[in-house]
Amino acid sequence: xxxxxxxxxxxxxxxxxxxxxxxxxxxxxxxxxxxxxxxxxxxxxxxxxxxxxxxxxxxxxxxxxxxxxxxxxxxxxxxxxxxxxxxxxxxxxxxxxxxxxxxxxxxxxxxxxxxxxxxxxxxxxxxxxxxxxxxxxxxxxxxxxxxxxxxxxxxxxxxxxxxxxxxxxxxxxxxxxxxxxxxxxxxxxxxxxxxxxxxxxxxxxxxxxxxxxxxxxxxxxxxxxxxxxxxxxxxxxxxxxxxxxxxxxxxxxxxxxxxxxxxxxxxxxxxxxxxxxxxxxxxxxxxxxxxxxxxxxxxxxxxxxxxxxxxxxxxxxxxxxxxxxxxxxxxxxxxxxxxxxxxxxxxxxxxxxxxxxxxxxxxxxxxxxxxxxxxxxxxxxxxxxxxxxxxxxxxxxxxxxxxxxxxxxxxxxxxxxxxxxxxxxxxxxxxxxxxxxxxxxxxxxxxxxxxxxxxxxxxxxxxxxxxxxxxxxxxxxxxxxxxxxxxxxxxxxxxxxxxxxxxxxxxxxxxxxxxxxxxxxxxxxxxxxxxxxxxxxxxxxxxxxxxx
Length: 548
Fold this sequence. Notes:
- The protein is α/β, with parallel strands linked by helices and 548 residues long.
- Among the domains are: 156-245 and 476-548, no CATH class; 380-465.
- Helices cover 49% and strands 7% of the residues.
- The strands form 3 sheets. It has a 5-stranded mixed beta sheet with strand order 5-4-3-8-9, with helices on both faces.
- A hairpin with an 8-residue loop joins strand 3 (221-228) and strand 4 (237-242).
- The longest helix is centred in the N-terminal third of the chain and has 27 residues, at 18-44.
């Protein structure tokens, strides 16, 4: 069985008789049977076999959910109604009337039949501004001024828009983009191209900062996920926060819970606050009661941020930076690493609550620990994958896993139905069946451990019973972050802070434009030309939320 499998000689077409074809089919069937027997032998010996992972039905159901929410298209449904011209909405730049070469005598003109030819002119358009100069009687000079918007730059906004679009949206690398522009006749250096990609883009950074604040202010829940994002030769992470209304990305060196809380506070004045919400979090995280009582007694209801004190006797200590916060912890004599972490997380939570983020905000995630804040809800697709990836060792294990997966799928389908028409009776039935499933003991120990973990997460997995509007999976976040990953694979890591900032900014703006069906090309031109035909994206987020 361990010897090399002999290879059949190549058989020419002349030698492929009906008998030979039958024998070849027989050999192929025998090889399939041999492979199955080898797998059984490996199982009986307790050796690792090639895993046979069945496709998840939950992924299929989630895809159907995406189509129902407008993220996909149902190809089974045909368009109903009169057929419309595909070109009737096109802008016509030139019109030519063409008559037949010969018109038979007695013919009557019956109008025109329009044939629209789509084309694009891909060429440079260079403008020379001749600035007239005059010398006054006093000997000084006056000169004509360039039009507004040029700002002394020798490159137009159309070109800059094209560069930003190609690099951030189409993922064209800088060397390829430079070669493309040079082939088109643009005289541009690599250094100048890099400047266009990273410098002078405050209008975009400012708008990106407003996205998260606007999105959180009108959202009942957000999706979140993270992925690797190397920077300056070091490993880092990019965190995504968003939902159907917006997408927001932030690259950092850490993916801790403190980092995630800091991410939630971006785009607004963020500070540390010790209030009831902060103390409730510290108690939940099992901060020692004596330390918690001391903090509650001394600082309850007091803000923590770095403004000078109006009264030296005032107990309010204001801190706005992480460095000053660390100094404050030292002044309080809090040295234990775990205690400092819990108090810091609690103070950041208190700051977010003080800014108006409701404690009822739901965070939908894949069960990564750093996202377990506020009202946490878990993705069912990720929960089911734990079961789906198990490798049974015998027939009894296979049966146990299949039964568990079938129960999971049925509960998932019932949750989808519950979201449409929630009832208390149905909610209790789902809770009961979920509890029974997670407490069932099988002959497969690994499966039992997976079910135990799932049972420990019951409240997060069944959060939708209390909030039927919550999604059952975190696919939206994974889709949003997929484009970011594609960009990372093509361009690699960032080197400068400006480059990292731009990557996050344009990823956020591009995905948010897509959610509101706005052309990213038109958006870039609108902002660079200062036309303001497209409203601020934060206003579009609030308007879409108001419309339901």
